[in-house]
Amino acid sequence: MQIKSVIFDLDGTITQPFFDFAAILREMGYPPDSGPILELMKKMTQKQQDETEKILLAHEDKAVTESTLNPGAKETLTELRRRGILIGILTRNRRDNALAVAQNTWFKI
Fold first, then answer.
1. Three-state secondary structure readout of the chain
2. Which end of the chain, N or C, is less surrounded by CB atoms within 10 Å?
3. Which domain holds residue 41?
């Protein structure tokens, strides 16, 4: 069977782990063991969701400028491209932020 495409997670797979979710939860006023942030937001009022969104956006914007590739990621992505294998990213980050991280890290290969 020939591989035609590969899907990666972004943060922690292609890039060095960047997000400190425990710190983000504390910044939001929740204990670090509150669970996944997006699921937690479903239980919030609209005002709380809006404030949480601002916090998440600030962290994602910071990730755009500060994310770095994991060791071997550049070589892996380069080889996949050389072989004509499509590369996909599956992430919970916003699409525009994920694309910006990609452009700042591995699209420069």
1. CCCCEEEEECECCCECCCCCHHHHHHHHCCCCCCCCHHHHHCCCCHHHHHHHHHHHHHHHHHHHHHCCECCCHHHHHHHHHHCCCEEEEECCCCHHHHHHHHHHHCCCC
2. N
3. 19-66
Number of domains in the chain: 2
Cα separation, 9 vs 12, whole angstroms = 7
Per-residue pLDDT for 61 more than 80? Answer: yes
Percent of the chain with pLDDT over 90: 52
Does the pTM surpass 0.85? The reply is no
Q: Report how far residue 106's alpha carbon sits from residue 14's, in angstroms, rounded to the nearest whole number.
A: 9
**Quick one: 76 and 92 in the same domain?**
yes
> CA–CA separation, 52 vs 28, rounded Å?
6
d(CA 25, CA 34): 8
